[in-house]
Amino acid sequence: MKSAVTMTVNGAPRTAEVEPRTLLVHLLREHLNLTGTHVGCDTSNCGACTVWLDDEAVKACTVLAVQAHGHEVTTIEGIAANGDLHPMQRAFHEHHGLQCGYCTPGMIMTAIKLVEAVPAPSDEEIRRGLEGNLCRCTGYENIVAAVRAASEVRV
Amino acid sequence: MAATVEQGKGIGVAALRKEDRKFLTGRGRYVDDLKLPGMLHMAIVRSQFPHAAITGIETSAAMAMPGVTAVLTGDDLEFAAGVPCASNPTGQMVHPTRPPLAKGRVRHVGEPIAVVIAADRYTARDAADAVEVGYAELPAVLGVEAALADGAPRVHEELDSNVGLVLAHRTDGVDEAFARADVVCEATIRNQRLIHVPIETRGVVADWNPASDELVVTSSTQVPHFLRTFLAIVCGVSEAKVRAIAPDVGGGFGAKLNAYAEEFIAAAASRKVGAPVKWIEERSEAMLATCHGRAQIAHMSLAATKDGKVLGMRAHYVQDYGSYLQMLTPLISQLTFLMSPGAYAIPEVDVKVTNVYTNTVPTDALRGAGRPEATHAIERSMDMLAGELGMSRTEIRRRNFPSEFPFTSAIGLQYDSGDYGKTLDRLLELSDDRETFARRREEAAARGKLLGRGLSTWVEVCGFVPSDVARNALGLTPGGWESSTVRMHPTGKATVITGTSPHGQGHATSWSQIVETELGVPFDDVEVIHGDTAFAPYGLGTYGSRSLAVGGTAVHLAATKVRDKARLVAAQMLEASPDDLDFSGGVFAVKGSPDKRTTIQEVAFRAWQAFGMPEGVTPGLDETVFFDPPNCVFPFGAHGCEVEVDRDTGKVEITSYIAVDDCGNVVNPMIVDGQVHGGVVHGIGQALYEEAEYDSGGQLVTGTLVDYLIPSAADVPHIETHRTVTPSPTNPLGVKGIGEAGTIASTPAVVSAVCDAVGARDLDMPLQPMKVWDAIQKGGAR
Question: What is the pTM assigned to this prediction?
Answer without folding.
Answer: 0.97
